[in-house]
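re: ur msg from earlier - yeah i can do the NDP complex, just paste it... oh wait u already did. ok heres what im feeding in:
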Amino acid sequence: MITLKGAEVSARIKEQVAEDLKKLDGKIPALAIVRVGEKPDDMSYERGAKKKMDSFGLQAESFVFPEDISDEDFKAAFQKICQDEKITGILLLKPLPEQISEKDIDRMIDPKKDLDGISPENIAKVFAGDPTGFAPCTAEAVIEVLKAYDIPIAGKRAAVVGRSMIVGKPLSMLLLKENATVTVCHTRTADLKGTCKNAELLIAAAGKAKMLDEGYVGEGAVVIDVGINVDEDGKLCGDVDFQSIQERASMATPVPGGVGAVTTAVLAKHLVRAALQQAE
Ligand code: NDP
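and the outut:
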């Protein structure tokens, strides 16, 4: 089995970003990372995103708010960030605390700065196959991995395990745009094993540690693992039991070192695209 390495895909995206940056006449796009509270997962993602922006020659600034900020105060602060001309794009770390209406925030974000595709406008564009929209970075990262390794998508049977608005659903639409035949699986899927096993492209985005073992993988399938979980030994792992699929899959992404590294590279790509679109 071939291991699909996120770092290699990220390096390829970096080259594209460098080319696009040249069109901005020296202007360096700036990312605003908006975080509420001190969740370790958010902080780790934030560090990774900042490191990536730095290595791609882009700016990033964090806007951090206390966990108990009121809905009204957060909305006022968020509005300011959206309107700040120095900010090219925004990454909002979710989920937000309960007292803040996430739906309202999704509608408030300026679609032109919405790099992770949370606004209704960008969701609609992803579903319509309109390339001017921003898809959620993780969903797009899966497509980037497949393309970087020249893995055919058109005409293939793809199974996506997970139907969240941030990964499963948009990813299904992106795969459909690439002409895959897509099956979306979830907790009510009757024959999950059979459906997964029948897929030529299996994408795991369920958030369940090592849930998909060799029994779920068809002979020669390509397996992309979006999951980020912690196993019983406290180690980072995906939704796929990477060791057990070695003899069955033809290629697979590891966790860590797979899709995660590509997600922040897509964020950087979106940031530069936002700058170019705003300059038009
Ligand atoms: P959610 O919890 O929002 O969604 C999980 C989805 O998986 C749901 O649709 C759920 O079905 C489905 N699911 C859960 N358990 C099963 C099961 N046993 N059988 C079938 N389907 C199941 O998670 P997210 O989409 O936000 O994230 C998914 C994973 O991806 C997580 O591990 C997360 O950490 C990771 N992630 C990784 C990123 C990266 O950069 N690599 C970025 C974002 C997320 P139902 O709808 O029926 O409940």
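cool cool. The chain is about 40% helix and 15% strand. ping me if u need the other ligands too
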